[in-house]
C-alpha cells in the first residue's frame, strides 16, 4: 500500500500547477488520482486523463453503489468524487497517490487514512490575487468565477486543519517548499 498526498486549495490557488511539477520528480513515485466529475470538460481536457466525466445520473448511481471514497457537491449541481477503484488501480501499480480535491474531500480522505496520508493546503496570497489568477486562466464564466470566489472564502477558514500549509505567492518557492515537505514524507 502506497502513501497518499492530498492537495486541497481554493480553485485558482495553483494546486494543478504545483502537482504538475512534483509528479515529474521520479523518486517520489507519484501518480495522479483521476477524479469523477459532472462538470463539462474544459478545452483540452480529456476523459480518463484529467477526470472521468460523468452525467449527474451516472454519478448518483455510483454514490448508491458505494463506489466513492469521498464525494462532494463542490458547486451547486457540480459533483466531484474519488473512486475507490482509482486508488486500488494506482496502488496495484506500486505508486504513491496524489489527490487534487476540495477542502472537505481532502479532510475526508485524511480521516480515512490518517497514518499513510499527508494533507497539504495551498493558500493564495489573497482573495484579490486569486480572482486575478482565475480571471487570467480564462476558464470560468463571470458567474462561475464569483461562485468559486465565494467558495474560496469558506475553504480558507479550514486551512489550519491540514498537516501543511504552502503559500503560493512565488511559484518557484512554493514548488521548492512542496518538494522539501514531500522528500521528508515519502523518502524517509
Ligand atoms: P488550481 O488547480 O488550484 O485551480 P491552477 O494551477 O490552475 O489552480 O492555477 C490557476 C492559475 O494561476 C493558472 O493560470 C496558473 O498558471 C496561475 N498560477 C499558479 N501559480 C501562480 C503563481 N505563484 N503566481 C501567478 N500565477 C500563478
Ligand atoms: P475544477 O473544476 O477547477 O477542476 O475543480 C474544482 C474543485 O473541485 C477543486 O477544488 C478541485 O480540487 C475539486 N475536486 C476535484 N476532484 C475532486 C474530488 O474527487 N473530490 C472532491 N471532493 N473535490 C474534487
TL;DR?
The protein has helices spanning 15-23, 56-64, 84-92, 103-112, 127-137, 142-156, 171-187, and strands spanning 4-8, 30-32, 35-37, 51-53, 68-75, 78-83, 96-100, 117-123, 164-167.
Put simply, the count of helices is: 7
Structural class: alpha/beta
Mean pLDDT: 96
The end-to-end span amounts to 16 Å
Order of helices and strands: EHEEEHEEHEHEHHEH
Biggest sheet character: 5 strands, parallel
How would you sum up this structure, described in words?
The two termini are 16 Å apart. The protein has one domain: Rossmann fold. A 5-stranded parallel sheet has the order 2-7-1-8-9, sandwiched between helices. The protein has a 4-stranded mixed sheet with strand order 4-3-6-5, with helices on both faces. β5 (68-75) and β6 (78-83) form a beta hairpin. 43% of the residues lie in helices and 23% in strands. With 188 residues, the chain is an alpha/beta fold. The model has no long low-confidence stretch (mean pLDDT 96). The chain has 7 helices and 9 strands. α5 (127-137) packs antiparallel against α6. The chain binds adenosine-5'-diphosphate and guanosine-5'-monophosphate. Guanosine-5'-monophosphate binds at residues 11, 35, 39, 70, 72, 74, 80-82, 100-102, 104-105.
Amino acid at each position: 500500500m502506497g502513501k497518499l498526498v492530498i492537495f486541497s486549495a481554493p480553485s485558482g490557488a495553483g494546486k494543478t500547477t504545483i502537482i504538475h511539477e512534483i509528479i515529474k520528480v521520479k523518486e517520489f513515485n507519484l501518480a495522479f488520482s483521476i477524479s469523477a466529475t459532472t462538470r463539462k470538460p474544459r478545452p483540452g481536457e480529456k476523459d480518463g486523463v484529467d477526470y472521468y466525466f460523468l452525467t449527474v445520473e451516472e454519478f448518483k448511481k455510483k454514490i448508491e453503489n458505494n463506489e466513492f471514497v469521498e464525494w462532494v457537491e463542490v458547486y451547486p449541481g457540480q459533483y466531484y468524487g474519488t473512486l475507490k477503484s482509482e486508488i486500488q488501480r494506482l496502488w496495484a501499480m506500486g505508486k504513491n497517490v496524489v489527490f487534487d480535491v476540495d477542502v472537505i474531500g481532502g479532510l475526508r480522505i485524511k480521516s480515512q487514512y490518517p497514518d499513510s496520508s499527508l494533507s497539504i493546503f495551498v493558500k493564495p496570497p489573497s482573495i484579490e490575487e486569486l480572482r486575478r489568477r482565475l480571471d487570467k486562466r480564462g476558464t470560468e464564466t463571470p458567474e462561475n468565477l464569483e461562485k468559486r470566489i465565494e467558495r474560496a472564502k469558506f475553504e480558507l477558514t479550514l486551512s489550519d486543519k491540514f498537516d501543511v500549509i504552502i503559500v503560493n505567492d512565488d511559484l518557484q518557492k512554493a514548488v521548492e517548499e512542496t518538494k522539501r515537505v514531500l522528500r521528508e514524507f515519502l523518502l524517509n
